[in-house]
Amino acid sequence: MDSLTLFCTASLLAGGLYWFVCILGSAERKGKHAVHLSGGSIAKENVQDNYKQYWSFFLRPKEIETTEKVPAFVDTFYNLVTDIYEWGWGQSFHFSPSIPGKSHKDATRIHEEMAVDLLNVKPGAKILDAGCGVGGPMRAIAAHSGANVVGITINEYQVQRARMHNKKAGLDKLCEVVCGNFLEMPFESNTFDGAYSIEATCHAPKLEEVYSEIYRVLKPGSLYVSYEWVTTELYRGEDPEHVEVIQGIERGDALPGLRSYSDISEVARKVGFEVVQEKDLAKPPSNPWWTRLKMGRIAYWRNHIVVMVLSWLGIAPKGTVDVHEMLFVTADYLTKGGETGIFSPMHMILCRKPESKSSD
């Protein structure tokens, strides 16, 4: 092969790799480039060990059912997946029903705006985002409502990402992010005019614990809305295929255990809330929320190749391929859960803290 042919071949390969990684694989509009994938707060050389540590939690299932073990379990998970989520999905780490004629981005925003509309808060109100991630919902909700949003996440890396995104969006005056455990929040009682959680409280070992904390920090008369991950009335615990799907979702999403839809309102009332409304937003006439997962299979394979190349080149941390493969497998379980109707990620409950109840 002569020098000119070799040069042209090398240039073509380099250009193709750049296009594949930085154009097809780019998520700048979402906030993360493929070449910047990391392990969050985990040192690059420790990512693979932490991935193994994450899976070791499932060898000791009783440990992830206790409050004191949850921070390490969930924090490890989000260190591993946050960059991949941002790169491959976006800044809002949740699902939404597909809307004909609307992009996934618009459908996501509408789903988020509905949450704050249910709270009926005025501009300038102070509301809580319990489990805010990198702040995608927070920014949409602040821009839509004019409310001051305080988000809490257990993961320090997500705090850094959220603050960066808030500033970039020009919303840092309305959006504040705190690193902390939503089972023991660093806020005074009767602080917030409203609260929401979007597919976040599923990480709590006991729903009663997080609902109690949210109840405590809300002002009397204020509303709380949550989109919960649940098994539906179609789930059968004696069906091995159903069990496999639900356990696959739990393992791939850092869940101590999915709850039944019937538990949600019962727990809310137990901690003192009045239940104003309850509805599974995944049910018809809503369009399937899992369509995006099925449509994204080509993108998953493309991204997996990108991750493998970056890992081989030493750009992405060793272990990133394992994490991406875990999320790919989990996407299949989520799709099966949606198609069979045994799982919903958007069982909505709207609650009110009574005016007459004590704040303690």
TrEMBL record:
Single Gene Ontology MF annotation: 24-methylenesterol C-methyltransferase activity
Class of this enzyme: transferase
Protein name: Methyltransferase
Signal peptide: none
UniProt superkingdom: Eukaryota
Database matches in Pfam families: Methyltransf_11, Sterol_MT_C
Keywords: Lipid biosynthesis, Lipid metabolism, Methyltransferase, S-adenosyl-L-methionine, Steroid biosynthesis, Steroid metabolism, Sterol biosynthesis, Sterol metabolism, Transferase
Classification via InterPro entries: Methyltransf_11 (IPR013216), MeTrfase_SMT (IPR030384), SAM-dependent_MTases_sf (IPR029063), Sterol_MeTrfase_C (IPR013705)
Function field: Catalyzes the methyl transfer from S-adenosyl-methionine to the methylene group of 24-methylene lophenol to form 24-ethylidene lophenol.
Family membership noted in the UniProt record: Belongs to the class I-like SAM-binding methyltransferase superfamily. Erg6/SMT family.
UniProt catalytic activity: 24-methylidenelophenol + S-adenosyl-L-methionine = (Z)-24-ethylidenelophenol + S-adenosyl-L-homocysteine + H(+)
Enzyme Commission (EC) number: 2.1.1.-
Domain SAM-dependent methyltransferase Erg6/SMT-type: 77-354
CDD domains (UniProt xref): AdoMet_MTases (cd02440)
Taxonomic path: Eukaryota, Viridiplantae, Streptophyta, Embryophyta, Tracheophyta
SUPFAM superfamilies recorded: S-adenosyl-L-methionine-dependent methyltransferases (SSF53335)
GO biological process terms, semicolon-separated: alkaloid metabolic process; methylation; sterol biosynthetic process
Pathway named in the protein's UniProt entry: Steroid biosynthesis; sterol biosynthesis
